[in-house]
Amino acid sequence: MKKDHVLRRAAEEDYAQELKWLKQADAGTAPTNWQLSPQAVLLYLMGGKTSKGKAITPKYFGQRRLIELSIATLLTDRALLLIGVPGTAKTWLSEHLSAAISGDSRLLVQGTSGTAEDAIRYGWNYAQLLQKGPSKDALVPSPVMTGMQDGKIVRIEELTRIPADIQDGLITILSEKQLPIAELQMSVQALQGFNIIATANDRDKGIHDMSSALSRRFNTVRLPLPATLKEEVEIVHFRINQLHPDLDIEKTIGTKDIEKLVTIFRELRSGQTEDKDLKLKTPSATLSTAEAISAINNSISLIKHFDKGETGLAESIVSSVVKDAQQDKVALQEYLEAVLKTRRGWNKLYQSCRDLLPD
Description:
This protein has 2 domains: about 5-220, Rossmann fold (3-Layer(aba) Sandwich); about 230-355. About 45% of the residues lie in helices and about 10% in strands. It has helices at about 10-15, 15-25, 40-45, 65-75, 90-100, 115-120, 125-130, 145-150, 165, 170-175, 210-215, 230-245, 250, 255-270, 290-305, 310-320, 325-340, 345-355; strands at about 50, 55, 80-85, 110, 120-125, 140, 155, 180, 185-190, 195-200, 220. It has a 5-stranded parallel β-sheet with strand order 4-7-10-3-11. A hairpin with a 4-residue loop joins strand 8 (about 180) and strand 9. Helix 16 packs across helix 18. It starts with 10 loop residues before the first helix and ends with a helix.
């Protein structure tokens, strides 16, 4: 399989050259089993230039202090919990922190309501278990166990989707830095460099609250949505250029169109216009920065392959906003009539969106 045909490469593969430059120019001291010093990890995340003049692209657009706090936490005996609404770059940040620190972002546990204990602790090769009984050869390590043995960062996505009794399997690991294997009367001890980055969505439904015992073992960093329209447009534009490096974005969908879509998402998300003059109904959709990126990406596909023009942007807006056929349709309809209809230069987009509203 050709690397060029892989849909999504790991962060340490995509940014291998930058990580190499940072390592070569790193004048700081890297902690045991860290690939880079804390200062170099910060430079990798926030962007800038190395001491040798190599340009490092920013991976996170936001408050520098949040990244400093995240890195500092991973140097302590506390694990890191990144929390926020969908689309605040929690997963993106955890992946790039792991890539910069451990050189490996693929030690991952995806949290769901069906996540079992063996995803956190260990499992067994049942063929060998039946043949020989419990043994080291029959043991199947979880990503957490592997991270402990190798001194690497482990990522746990959507921690609060995991049932509470399974979550609590982390308590001994985080407090004692070891994982008991009762069947073998032994335990795995964590090497220096091991830690956990977990993410959680604080606006989800049906989540499992963390126990106070587990919460105490995490430092929590809350990631906010982009504070300004300019900042959010910059993020969306940056990611779209990453997704389409060989495409002239301006000839397909211009910066003004990106700004229009992001403005609509921000106003519907916040329930008020950018100038705060008018209150709006909010739809059920989250309309996060991540969804704006997805909608722009979809628009590019419609425009490029089906010659949709501004209709392609409208179709992406309507399909993103209207998730609930009744509630969301009303919210978008009122927004179109009260806001877009009267905005200078927005008439074509207003008309296209109105024509696409479901009956």
